[in-house]
Amino acid sequence: MAVHEVRAAGADALALVTELLQRARLADPESGLWEAADLQWWRRKQRRSDAVDQLFWVDADGPVAAVVFTDWGGHWGCDPIVAPAAEPVPLGRVWSRGVAEVDALGLRDVRVLARDDDHEQCELLVRSGFSPDGERSRITWMDADARPAPAPLPAGFTIVDRTSVPPRPHPMRRRNGEEVELRLRQCSLYDPGLDLAVETEDGGVAGYALFWLDPVTKVGLVEPMRVEDAYQRRGLARALLTEGLDRLARRGARRLKVGYATEPARAIYTGAGFRVSVTCTEYLGRADGV
Question: Which one of 28, 155, 183, 232 is most buried, counting C-beta atoms within 10 A?
Fold first, then answer.
């Protein structure tokens, strides 16, 4: 099955990488780093990378590999993605083209997240002049049937979603911009019924969480979740998390996933039953050639 290269930007690139990551997850239940919903979440606000022509390899059934660049403000992320295929594109070839793209775009602060058990990618990164920067994170999974029961909220708080409240500003706008809800609603996997917030009696926002169901892979993803500082340690995070996981399962999710990088997040997620499957390290550098 012949493979050819294509380029796409903006919404077209998002559609291709969504299909690619769904294909990868169907081929292997735990490989790779990202779900399609991860990259849809990244689209929550406008970035310079929206205009970048991302590179894809495509066969007759759709995309099989890609190099995806994301502008995070202070640095750029580069994600080489390879899915199992009839004639797979070798990771070395994908990364080599990624190095060339770094040079073509003139990027100097580039970061790549790699699984610690992906020895091939880690070796390619080191050979290209990248080095671990000390940032570590973990990926965790849970079977949907093993989810905990929804935890009760303390008195005076209510969980709402974007279908059950009158029109009002999105709770994530302070950190993600006024267009966050508009951009989320343009994503194929976004479900306003899984976009949750904890409200106080006077309508204030004490916390929020967004849950993503991929109907193709049956994976439910948690991204992001936050409880505001003034409302910490009242059980709101567990109530939000367990309510969202229950909604995901009732909508058809078979497996649940969340990543974390901090000790408070570890306590919340592992306390709810998530189990670490892999650790990851961020590599920093400017590629000078493979």
Answer: 183
Query: What CA–CA distance (Å, rounded) separates 84 from 252?
Result: 25
* Segment holding 15, helix H or strand E: helix 10-27
CB environment 89-127: b (16+ within 10 A), e (fewer): bebbebbbbbbebbeebebeebbbbbbeebeebbebbee
Residue 1: its pLDDT value, please? 66
189-192: long-range contacts, CB 8 A cutoff, minimum separation 24? 189/18, 189/36, 189/37, 189/40, 189/213, 189/214, 190/40, 191/251, 192/161, 192/162, 192/163
Helix (H, G, I), strand (E, B) or coil at 230: helix
How wide is the angle at C-alpha 167 spanned by C-alphas 152 and 38, nearest 5°? 65
Write out pLDDT tens, residues 64-103. Answer: 999 999 999 999 999 999 998 767 899 999 999 999 999 9
SS3 106: coil
> Shortest CA distance to 277 belongs to which of 144, 115, 84?
115
Residues 119-146: tens digit of each pLDDT: 999 999 999 999 999 889 999 999 999 9
Q: Are 158 and 198 in contact (CB under 8 A)?
A: yes
pLDDT band per the 50, 70, 90 thresholds, residue 289: very low
